[in-house]
Amino acid sequence: MKKRIAFLGFAMLAVAGLRAIDDPVQYVNPLVGSHSTHSLSTGNTYPAIALPWGMNFWTPQTGKMGDGWCYTYDAEQIRGFKQTHQPSPWMNDYAMFNIMPEASDAPIYDENKRASWFSHKAEVSKPHYYKVYLADYDITTEIAPTSRAAIFRFTCPEGKNFVIVDAFDRGSYVKVIPGENKVVGYTTRNSGGVPEGFKNYFVLQFDRPFTYTSTADEGKESKNLEMKSKHAAAAVGFQTAKRGEQINVRVASSFISIEQAEQNLKELGSKTLEEIAEAGRQEWNKVLNVIDVDDNSDVDRLRTFYSCLYRSTLFPRSFYEINAKGEVVHYSPYNGQVLPGYLFADTGFWDTFRALFPLVNLMYPSMSQKMQEGWANAYKESGFLPEWSAPGHRACMVGNNSASVVADAYLKGIRGYDIDALWEAVKHGANADLPRTTSGRKQWQTYNRLGYVPYDSINESAARTLEYAFDDWSIYKLGQALGKPEKEINVYAEHAMNYKNLFDKSYNLMRGKLANGEWAPNFNPFKWGDAFTEGNSWHYSWSVFHDPQGLIDLMGGNDTFNRMLDSVFILPPIFDDSYYGGVIHEIREMQIMNMGNYAHGNQPIQHMIYMYAYSGQPWKSQYWLRETMNRMYNAHADGYCGDEDNGQTSAWYIFTAMGFYPVCPGSGEYVLGAPYFKKMTLHLENGKDVVITAPQQSDENRYVGALKVNGAEHNVNYVKHTDLIAGMKMDYTMQAQPNRQRGTSAEAAPYSFSKEYKPAAKGKKKK
Ligand code: CA
């Protein structure tokens, strides 16, 4: 019998070991990146208590109403639990309201007075479950979310308890319905990107009758059961007989109507909080389990990895609902109508075209299909694709990178949506400008005429030019794949080479140019902003995703190109902040990281390390990628080195850990770096697996000695998407010294447009 027990114990251990891999959500820390301020971002994230791509997120709210820094790790008090849709503190929130339990003699509406002390030591933060002890009230709050609803449970002390429903201050409404133990209402608070009449309707269903009700207008209490005002709120009271009594609240919301909010409440069914949390845990594990990491040598790295994968699968937000007939419908932030079909929101393509959307296309193609349908709907409803959606068109950043988001999905084989509309959309967006937003292209006429955006016509002109050129290439490749005639698409191929117009040979860098063809005066390659966007020329000169070979040729060959890449790390972190009139946080994040002028905390340079793969020195990619992963990321509250930005900086980590990265979305290639774990398995939706092994890998053995793909020597620095999704086995031999032979030939270099495209000689252009 004893023996049998011992055997059982062993079996259980083995099972426990297996479960560790089956339950990756245990490694996710939603607080990563929340230790941020205006002046220094370690992510600028908040704990999103939500399902993958959920319509609503919930977050404990430490900041004041309207403060984009809604949860900061060093805060000491919580003033509510906010339903949030905020993509970034810089864009701020919309459709928000909060809920706050209190134990007091009378309801406290004032958000400063009602705030309660809390401790991270009395806080449990999981994507699918959040719990915190509100010390001033002796109330424990628990939350478990679905996509559009959530269950709250307040464990209260004996006596009078209240729940405040704060609908915020830009025109709101609450109604207390005592007979139904219900509070309904709406908030209109937003930060732009919505039409007139935009509302977020909510319904709260309590599990016991109210012993007290009131409403408030700007904090002034009223006994009216209904309040419509600039700042409406409601309070409902409960008398508890003993400490530990619980109040359960089922909450849902809708962008469409109160009735639809009631419909969305059905997501909870009759499930308990535990059951909703368990369903959420399983939902997260389904999404996280597509990438198995089989390497327990450092649990912190598993935590960082799965926390990054969680951040990569929140945005773009599902901005659609399921109506009573079971149909997918959405409120359009573009025209205010309720329309059929999918819609997604809250992403800035300037950030996310780079790695986030390629990650969705590779690992979650069925989600990508819905997203593409959503972008097609955005175009149909507004005449433009968004560049920064939050939730409709906003004015932020530069470029016309929706072209890349659309092209990469189609070129990666995603189908089942209205690609004809999207083809019209990308062509239109390249030749139009939606005023008061950054959708379409600013200065598209001058760009089309001169081949660059002139420095003297608009700010950040060089960044715009470089991105437009890449976007033109994306349109060209999409047009090719769709079989569009040459006369329709050749102009985009020609314009794809426009990056050359801003290359200043005397510096070997990109530079702003005046409309008259002269260089912009007083060039300082260390100047942030000005001709560039949140970066300097050293950061932006690599933004030739589609034609690194063309850039190498401009610089004068591999040796110079490699020296220029090296210089980014060798240079001290000097900067000129005069364009901004002060140190913006992205500059500070470069300055303090001790990586020279490499600025991983912002997006423009995030692909740069992979550029050595094009110029015969892939071991330098292998070195710096691991440095960046080890030094710029962790699984704690300060876990990023700058704004996380809606999955982009996380997706960089996911790809880089897998050992490849989509330097040029749309090219169908991933550029090789080096694997970070001993074994990873990517479970693709088509049923195929990509198995990546690197048994010797360690911080010391960071260099690729050899790589076999499906058993055959693989000496080029890329893999093709079509080969990956057919199922692939990548077996690495890792070593402590660089292999200076492997991947050094010209043939080893990944995709460059100039190798396949020869522009027609000047004067011989086909009509
Ligand atoms: Ca950024």
Taking Cα atoms only, what radius of gyration do you get, to the nearest Å?
27 Å
Low-confidence spans: pLDDT under 50, at least 5 residues?
1-20, 763-767
Helix content: 25-40%
Terminal Cα separation, in Å? 90 Å
Shape: globular
Mean pLDDT over the full residue set: 96
Structural class: alpha+beta
The fraction of residues in strands falls at: 15-25%
The CATH class of the largest domain, by name, is Alpha Beta
What's the count of strands? Answer: 36
CATH T-level topology of the largest domain:
GH92 mannosidase fold
CATH superfamily of the largest domain: GH92 mannosidase domain
Characterize the biggest β-sheet.
9 strands, antiparallel
Which architecture of the largest domain does the CATH hierarchy give at level 2? 2-Layer Sandwich
Q: How many domains make up the coordinates?
A: 2
The helix tally amounts to 20
Strand arrangement, largest sheet?
6-7-8-9-18-13-12-11-16
- Give the oligomeric state: single chain
Explain this structure to me?
The structure is a single chain. The protein is of the alpha+beta class. Helix content is 28%, strand content 22%. The chain has 20 helices and 36 strands. The strands form nine sheets. A nine-stranded antiparallel sheet has the order 6-7-8-9-18-13-12-11-16. It has a seven-stranded antiparallel sheet with strand order 1-3-4-10-17-14-15, with no helix packed on it. The chain has a six-stranded mixed sheet with strand order 19-31-32-36-33-34. It is globular, with a radius of gyration of 27 Å.
